[in-house]
UniProtKB/TrEMBL annotation:
This is Olfactory receptor. Keywords: Cell membrane, Disulfide bond, G-protein coupled receptor, Glycoprotein, Membrane, Olfaction, Receptor, Sensory transduction, Transducer, Transmembrane, Transmembrane helix. PANTHER family: G-PROTEIN COUPLED RECEPTOR (PTHR24242), OLFACTORY RECEPTOR (PTHR24242:SF413). It is a multi-pass membrane protein. The keyword Cytoplasm does not apply. The chain crosses the membrane at residues 26-50, 71-89, 101-120, 140-158, 197-221, 242-261, 273-292. The lineage of its organism: Eukaryota, Metazoa, Chordata, Craniata, Vertebrata. Its main location: membrane. Residues 41-290 form the G-protein coupled receptors family 1 profile domain. Coiled coil: none annotated. CDD domains: 7tmA_OR. It comes from Rangifer tarandus platyrhynchus. InterPro entries: GPCR_Rhodpsn, GPCR_Rhodpsn_7TM, Olfact_rcpt, Olfactory_GPCR1.
């Protein structure tokens, strides 16, 4: 017999941070500022990497794609979060909720793959410098980027499809600031065991495997750094890799704590705090850690700014001369 979707809920109500009513204005200012800095920082990375020929290398190609992804990733979540703070709750249709869930999973999975690929790229550059140009050729770089995006696109379909086929009979209040998997499944009036187990297995396959691959790459990198004879060289490389690893650990750690735990439910307030780290904080940290602490990128940024300011100055003089 063909199963039917018995949902009567046509829209959900995102509650956001309603338990912190006296902090709504301050939270709005903080999250709006972080969102502005995140989008601006990642746009700057894309522009600088695109305009400076010296940065047309695999490392910066991956970084440009990561920045592009972060803009859309944070834009999938934060504008709706800001809306919940302004209106003390935000209505969202069932289909819009499923669409947000899909893009969240798709972009989050793609970020996992890109971070693993970027760690592998650094492993090759530091541990096999003589073979780097061959092992990470432009063609291989393009293929790795394409695989990351296409795998992410496919990863988002299964959880979204399974959640969309659950029955939602009411209530319709999601105690969260976006349509996340755990609070949505808690609202379902049908059995979520199969959906929960599939998401659990998928989370292990994506999060844990990518995290292990990233971690293994950094273990080999650290091992190679320890053989650098220069103490200053070791400290400089350790500083950069340590920062990268810290951001990666925050991202993977919070994501794993949320999704690799079947039948275990943290309190809604803890869920929200943990979610802030991987939806708001890490998209801000990535441009800072991966580029603004990088000497080559900072030199390229100054060069692009001087060139653009020079062009703007010439145009201003031409306009004054014409007048």
């Amino acid at each position: 017999m063909k199963s039917q979707n018995l949902s009567t809920v046509t829209e959900f109500q995102l509650l956001g941070f309603q338990n912190l009513l006296e902090w709504q204005t301050l939270l709005f200012i903080i999250f709006l500022s972080i969102y502005f800095l995140t989008v601006t920082g990642n746009i700057v990375i894309i522009v600088v990497v695109s305009q400076d020929q010296r940065l047309h290398s695999p490392m910066y190609t991956f970084l440009k794609h990561l920045s592009f992804l972060e803009i859309w990733y944070t834009s999938t979540i934060v504008p709706l979060l800001l809306a919940t703070l302004v209106s003390q709750g935000q209505a969202i249709s069932f289909h819009a909720c499923i669409a947000q869930l899909y893009f969240f999973v798709f972009l989050g999975a793609t970020e996992c793959f890109l971070l693993a690929v970027m760690a592998y790229d650094r492993y090759l550059a530091i541990c096999s410098p003589l073979h780097y140009s061959f092992l990470m050729s432009p063609e291989i770089c393009t293929k790795l980027v394409a695989i990351s995006w296409l795998t992410g696109v496919g990863t988002g379909f299964l959880p979204s499809l399974m959640v969309s086929r659950l029955d939602f009979c009411g209530p319709n209040q999601i105690n969260h600031f976006f349509c996340d998997l755990p609070p949505l499944m808690q609202l379902s009036c049908s059995s979520v065991y199969v959906t929960e187990m599939v998401i659990f297995i998928l989370s292990i396959a994506v999060l844990c495997i990518c995290f292990i691959l990233t971690l293994v790459s950094y273990v080999f990198i650290v091992s190679s750094i320890l053989r650098i004879p220069s103490a200053s060289g070791r400290m400089k490389t350790f500083s950069t890799c340590g920062s990268h690893l810290a951001v990666v650990t925050i991202y993977y750690g919070t994501m794993i704590s949320m999704y690799v735990r079947p039948s275990a439910h943290l309190s809604p307030d803890i869920n929200k705090i943990v979610s802030v780290f991987y939806t708001v904080i890490t998209p801000l940290l990535n441009p800072v850690i991966y580029s603004l602490r990088n000497k080559d990128f900072k030199d390229a940024l100054r060069k692009v700014m001087r060139r653009n300011c020079g062009i703007y100055g010439v145009r201003m003089k031409e306009n004054l001369f014409i007048r």
